Amino acid sequence: LTIDTDSGAIAMQGAIGGSTALNALTVNADGDSTIEIANIGSTTVGVTGATAIGNTSTGTLTLDGTIYKTTGTQTYKATSGQNIDITNTATGGVAFTTTNTDIDFNTSGVDLETNKTITISTGDGAGEVKFGGAVETNGGDNDILTITSGTGNVTFSGALGVTNELGGLSVNASTGNGDITFAGNIGASATKAGVIGTTSIGNTTTTDLNFNSTIYSFDGGDTTIKANSGDSIDLAADAPTAFYTIEDNIEFANGNIHLSGGTNLTVDTGAAGGNITINEIAGTLRETVTLDAGSG
């Protein structure tokens, strides 16, 4: 199924492939119209091939269903800014699922507005998960993002929760050995966290964890950052980098932290304190490390 309206708005308010799967789905590969997609599939797959929704000129892409289930890749695009909105507030949350193929949110940032859990799963194989812009919420502190990608990589090209924080974050917390990369900040400062809730990033088989920016701030629950043994937790901003919690525990587990040249590290859990647990730290050019656990 291919739909092309140029500047005409599209609202697909029923399930696509709810009973019989489509071979492929393309909605407005060009044009600047707004797009609304309710559901793709049901308990069964809605599209067996590639799904491509929107383009780099799409005004706003609203995903207001609860199920987006395909065998092939899912690609969602809109114009730059926060123009991909995930909005359904049903009790069970929203799930994006493929079978070992990629799920990409390209060009635009994503706003999570469900007040529930958003689950993104590409199966046990090589499906990647990519966010091309920032990830924000509606500010209710209850939008939880959970990602599993098997052997596929997970990449956040923009910041998380800098304006409105997530209610929780889990990225390959129990399984999956794909690389995980945060190219931008999580939160804005020591007192403005990007996640208000439990954060779990990686597991003991995660090949490589990359934190390429300078501020990673958490509140409201423990933060666990975990990777494969060896120098597998890479801090690569080449500039002073800080991990903050607001009186909560933070643990860098199993893997060792490796600091790129000039990445002086601060880990600070606030005056009242949370525990800081680090396996090992290796530097490149005599970087400094400051740990402040308050009373923790």
Write a concise synopsis of the structure shown.
The protein is an all-beta fold and 296 residues long. The chain has strands at 2-3, 10-16, 25-27, 35-40, 51-53, 61-63, 67-69, 74-77, 82-86, 94-97, 103-106, 109-112, 117-121, 129-131, 135-137, 144-148, 154-156, 168-171, 180-182, 195-196, 199-201, 209-211, 215-219, 223-226, 233-235, 241-245, 250-253, 257-259, 265-268, 276-278, 281-282, 289-292.
Largest sheet: 12 strands, parallel
CA-CA gap between termini: 58 Å
Regions with pLDDT < 50 over 5+ consecutive residues? none
Q: Which structural class do you get from the secondary structure elements?
A: mainly beta
Task: Kindly state the percentage of residues in helix.
Answer: under 10%
Largest beta sheet: strand ordering? 1-3-5-8-11-14-17-19-22-25-28-31
Number of helices: 0
Strand content: 35-45%
**Assembly of the depicted chains:** single chain
| Overall pLDDT level | 97
User: Which shape, going by the Cα principal axes?
Assistant: elongated
Computed Rg: 19 Å
**Total beta-strand segments:** 32
Account of the 3D structure:
The chain has 296 residues and is mostly beta strands. The strands form 4 sheets. Strands 1-3-5-8-11-14-17-19-22-25-28-31 form a 12-stranded parallel beta sheet, with no helix packed on it. A 9-stranded parallel beta sheet has the order 7-10-13-16-18-21-24-27-30, with no helix packed on it. 0% of the residues lie in helices and 40% in strands. The mean pLDDT is 97. The protein has no helices and 32 strands.
